[in-house]
Design a protein that fits this description.
Elements lengths: L6 E4 L8 H12 L4 E3 L7 E8 L2 E8 L2 E5 L1 H7 L3 E9 L2 E5 L2 E5 L4 E5 L4 E5 L3 E9 L24 H14 L7 H19 L3 H19 L8 H8 L3 H10 L4 H17 L8 H7 L5 H12 L3 H9 L1
InterPro entries: AraC-bd_2, AraC_XylS_family_regulators, Homeodomain-like_sf, HTH_AraC
Protein name: AraC-like DNA-binding protein
Keywords: DNA-binding, Transcription, Transcription regulation
Length: 314
């Protein structure tokens, strides 16, 4: 999905008695279906919503309230996303899988939208929320060491990541596309959290093979004949075993190759100094069939390559 125009939704547009119900609708539309309640009838809240590629960035400013994602809601709308909540002002209590994370300014936590959770804000609050596909983080079996746990802004990796997430939020609405920055921050988040999660010796071996495979794929994306068989041969393992390793990470080899090619195309198309044609960009990254490239790109990002290019330049 390309960067889209900012949406700002606020309870100021409704009466006080309808504000909580309206807020429930707003946050369910912005993120995933959620329930909400507030201790005071005069609740007020505002959310600013931006899409940066596959990442949704929202800035939430609201009075004391609580939001919940229940099993029934998940069953009706499973989506495969992680959220990262960065506390900017006030405090928040996140509860997921029996773990409690109290967040203060500068702290953040990553949580899974396909598992029940509660966010309780006991005072006026401001939070930056980033929602992105689970495939962007390579946590593997170590996910339980990270999800639903507070990462302090003054500890590693929080001291590295919190300023970058703040910068990303501040760059929204300014000149230039923040999409490359969003991609880079998520890549760094993935690397640092995977290190924090730890792994058993067997898992380390598996993860090392997956990283080698992904590195090989990135180095050969421009080759039209890049395929799972070629990657497996380069790593001296069977294609079946390679497919098994990628399946454990939540994706297939061919799907990963296609995603990485489209991501590189998207980055090129967002560059203001691009001189190549749209079809030439696809061919550069191993997608020489213009019609196939256009269909795949639109399926991934909601716009054709030409529409994306025009929107990025505007």
């Amino acid at each position: 999905m390309v960067q889209t125009a900012t949406r700002i939704l606020s309870t100021r547009s409704v009466s006080g008695g309808e504000s909580v119900e309206y807020w429930r609708h707003v946050i369910s539309d912005a993120f995933v279906p959620l329930d909400a309640d507030a201790p005071e009838p005069g609740f007020r809240g505002e959310v600013r919503i931006d899409h940066l590629g596959s990442t949704l960035v929202s800035q939430v400013d609201a009075g004391p309230h609580r939001v919940r994602r229940t099993r029934a809601m998940i069953g009706a709308s499973e989506r495969g996303y992680y959220k990262l909540g960065l506390q900017v002002r006030g405090s928040c209590l996140l509860v997921q899988d029996g773990r409690e994370a109290m967040l203060g300014p500068g702290d953040f936590a990553v949580y899974d939208t396909d598992r029940p959770y509660t966010l309780a804000f006991g005072e006026p609050t401001s939070m930056a929320v980033f929602m992105f596909p689970r495939s962007r983080l390579r946590l593997g079996a170590g996910a339980g060491q990270i999800l639903g746990r507070a990462i302090r802004g003054d500890d590693e990796p929080g001291s590295l990541l919190s300023p970058l997430f703040r910068r990303l939020v501040h760059q929204l609405g300014r000149d230039g596309s923040p999409i490359p920055l969003a991609d880079a921050v998520l890549d760094l988040l993935s690397a640092l959290l995977a290190e924090q999660a730890g792994a058993t010796p067997g898992e380390v071996g598996h993860d090392a093979l997956v990283l080698r495979a992904r590195s090989y794929i990135d180095a050969h994306l421009s080759e039209e004949d890049l395929c799972p068989d070629a990657v497996a041969a380069a790593l001296h393992i069977s294609t079946r075993y390679l497919q098994k390793l990628f399946a454990e990470q939540g994706t297939g080899v061919a799907g990963w190759i296609r995603m990485r090619r489209l991501e590189q195309c998207r980055r090129d198309l967002a560059r203001p100094d691009l001189t190549r044609s749209v079809s030439a960009v696809g061919a550069t990254w191993g997608l020489p069939d213009a019609a196939h490239f256009s269909r795949a790109f639109k399926a991934a990002y909601g716009l054709s390559p030409r529409e994306f290019r025009a929107r990025a330049l505007s």
